[in-house]
């Protein structure tokens, strides 16, 4: 691939080139065999303004750069002399302003990040973009479980373990082939992993919780077995709390656990359980006969059945489902934290989960901003580039302000996490984390809505809506034209 070089005029005469070829970003693609399968149709490719021409501008008006990587096998040569190539930065830092947090931007300083954090970020970025991203795209489209080879590689580098955060479960593990030591690993490394994994553009892929309650409250033998099974990527786990009736009201769950000889019999159903379709272990909140909440680790087996639920944020790659529990026997040793109130066990990890969700949301918004910024500088409407519109620039300004303020707040909280004990964190950070999550996710809704406006029809998959701003502006301009000249206040 790309072994041959072509001068623009020589391409058509080259013996190995089929009838239909184009130049995109200085690369020559032979589309003869692909054209009839092209999702955008054969006609557009055969158009005399496209076929046999440099189609770079038309291509980038309709596709993401990633399409070229997926179809790299169609490339038969490179254009000479090479023009300025398009920057797609896979595995490295983006040069787009505000596309990276300040600590990764040239010229900035940070009190939080050390050289080992930077080393770690570079390695995780490369891994995510080269290994995880392609798999996540395929799985998200097809609604599949992350592929076992990717999980195996994540397990080998102990990424699955690091995603759970600092703690005893990391003891004895070599992190990222040893580029950082166990002593160095802290909440900032976890923040880096969380934010870098948001770059896969597939919200549901590899989602799911359930292990922290096991780490904190299971009996040692059970804990060690489950930690090993899940962190090796072999047997996933999920947190089964919500129900059709109860939503996330833990106290209101109806899934019944009845005490029997040697353990419990469980009957009921859980709903919206992320990762349940792929899970082997289910950390399940149940109501005992005395009305108290008990948390049981249930293993997939007799009486356990899962059926998929499609959510609006993901295809079934998130593995979201119903969990039907019919007369399932659970041994006594599978009860978590016997003696602790079940509610406390479930709520114990909520602060940390909220911090993870806020981190991911902020990183996701940054990616949205980067895409919007690229689009407004390349997209021309009525002969003018989109960024020339003040209303568009205002949206971008608001996005940057939200993202930068949230990231600074997040890093402050993360620093506190590296200094405070678990007890101090529960005491001092619960409120801060709750506010940050509220602020970040509300901001995310505005950022998402504004980005759809900026992208217009391209921001939607099933419908095509002219941007509201454009419609609003059209209406006001028409009203201004119709304003009677004699009207005064
Ligand atoms: C190497 C060359 C090309 C490849 C591999 C390719 C591939 C694709 C793919 C995979 C899609 C589906 C949407 C997506 O994943 O983004 C698509 C859509 C489309 N393509 Fe291409 N394409 C190529 C060149 C072109 C060119 C030169 C044009 C000419 C203008 C074109 C016009 C379109 C159109 C109109 C759509 C539909 C877009 C939509 O529905 O929003 N493509 N193409």
From TrEMBL:
Pfam families documented for this protein: Acyl-CoA_dh_1 (PF00441), Acyl-CoA_dh_M (PF02770), Acyl-CoA_dh_N (PF02771), Cyt-b5 (PF00173)
CDD domains from the UniProt entry: ACAD
InterPro entries documented for this protein: Acyl-CoA_dehydrogenase, Acyl-CoA_DH_CS, Acyl-CoA_Oxase/DH_mid-dom, Acyl-CoA_Oxase/DH_mid-dom_sf, AcylCo_DH-like_C, AcylCo_DH/oxidase_C, AcylCoA_DH/ox_N, AcylCoA_DH/ox_N_sf
Taxonomy, superkingdom: Eukaryota
Domain Cytochrome b5 heme-binding per the UniProt entry, residue ranges: 3-94
Signal peptide interval: none
One Gene Ontology molecular-function label: flavin adenine dinucleotide binding
Entry GO CC: cytoplasm
Coiled coil: none
Cofactor(s) in the UniProt record: FAD
UniProt KW keywords: FAD, Flavoprotein, Oxidoreductase
SMART domains: Cyt-b5
GO biological process: fatty acid beta-oxidation using acyl-CoA dehydrogenase
Family: Belongs to the acyl-CoA dehydrogenase family.
PANTHER family referenced in this protein's UniProt entry, alphabetically: ACYL-COA DEHYDROGENASE FAMILY PROTEIN (AFU_ORTHOLOGUE AFUA_6G10880)-RELATED, MEDIUM-CHAIN SPECIFIC ACYL-COA DEHYDROGENASE, MITOCHONDRIAL-RELATED
The protein's name in its UniProt record: Acyl-CoA dehydrogenase/oxidase
Organism, as annotated: Mycena rosella (Pink bonnet)
